[in-house]
Amino acid sequence: MRYFIVDDDLASRKMLKEIITEGDIGLVIGEANSGISSLSPITTMQPDVVLIDFLMPELDGIETIEQLRKKGYQGQFIMISQIINKEMVGEAYEKGVEFFIHKPINRIEVLTILRKTAEQIRLQDSLLAIKESLANIVPIKTVYKKQSVKEIVHSILSDMGILGEVGIDDIVAMIEFLFDQKDSMIQLPPLKELYEAVATKSGISFTHLQKESKAIEQRLRRTILNAMNNIASLGAIDYTNADFEYYAPRYFDFQEIRSQMIHMQEGRKNFAKMKVNIKKFLQVLYMEVQEKYNEIQTKR
Q1: Sheet harboring 76-81: ordered strands across?
Q2: Cα 262 to chain center, whole Å?
Q3: pLDDT at 46
Q4: Residues 136-159, mean pLDDT to the nearest whole number
Q5: Is 101 found in the same domain as 46?
Q6: Are residues 200 and 155 in the same domain?
Q7: How far apart are the first and last CA of the chain?
Q8: What is the DSSP string of 237-276?
Q9: For all residues of the chain together, what is the average pLDDT?
């Protein structure tokens, strides 16, 4: 990862350069003591990340970012500041700042933020490669597959009684995304990567990727929790119910379902607090959809 540091404080520049070098997280390819003097070298060298001070004479951090964007710089910005307020943070986010490093500079904070930024850049590059790869798929086959996958997902979620829940579109998008990657995939990628991949594919900008990923996780958790309550309700009424016998042990942590059943049978008004295992739910759903999809293709 290639870094450029813009700060009118020489001590801060030296400290940041030392942390980057000793932490073995990249290479500092340049530095500047003002926003004005940074414009030409940054647009020429195109570093991956620019660490930029907020308070500088003549041209402050926000103004420098605006100038660099106008000149075609496409990399990431990390703001360095001793003063943080809501107005400044909001303006910085609007200009594309991903993270803040607070002054006085803390080595652990810098390393954590820079590693997180590097991870995001790698993910962004990976998602771009995936998107370009998907663009080469024959349109008719892609639409045909997605229609089939969506129908199977809807059928399964309908059995659980959650077809109208807020997270259904997210679940469908994730399963379709997994099918687009590799039909023989066995293990799901980390949930964070899956959320961000689906959010990116839906058109969310990279700046708002983290916020949308968290929203996706919340919608999934709420939807799966409702499914657990529905399945527990079936079991509480009839332990031999076919849907209960099939879905309870496969898609969920059965002990959680069992505890909720007891809760319901005892006539308590409020639902018990259940732990939601999102990864297990998506893993089992993906494997089942894959199996049913292959069955359909074989029959055709």
Answers
A1: 27-32, 2-6, 49-53, 76-81, 97-102
A2: 36
A3: 92
A4: 71
A5: yes
A6: yes
A7: 49
A8: H-TT-HHHHHHHHHHS-HHHHHHHHHHHHTT-SSPPP---
A9: 84
Average pLDDT over residues 181-205: 78
- The SS3 call for residue 212 is helix
- List, for residues 176-188, the tens digit of each pLDDT value: 888 887 555 567 8
Which residues span the domain enclosing 106?
A: 2-128
From 87, 105, 128, the end of a domain falls on 128
Structure tokens at 158: 């309908």
pLDDT tens, 114-136? 988 888 787 777 766 666 665 55
Question: Which of 128, 146, 171 is a domain's end point?
Answer: 128
Clarify whether residues 242 and 208 are in a common domain.
yes
What are 205-211's contacts with CB under 8 Å, separation 24+?
206/120, 206/124, 207/93, 207/96, 207/98, 209/120
Same structural domain, 38 and 57: yes
Q: Are 144 and 289 found together in one domain? A: yes
Contact 162, 226 (CB under 8 A): yes
**Can you tell me the distance from the alpha carbon of 180 to that of 134, in angstroms, rounded to the nearest whole number?**
7
Q: Do you know the residue count of the chain?
A: 300
How many domains does the structure of the chain reveal?
Answer: 2
Q: What confidence tens digit (pLDDT) does each residue in 82-114 have?
A: 766 667 767 777 777 878 888 889 999 899 889
- d(CA 81, CA 278) in angstroms, rounded, equals 38
Q: Are residues 142 and 284 in the same domain?
A: yes
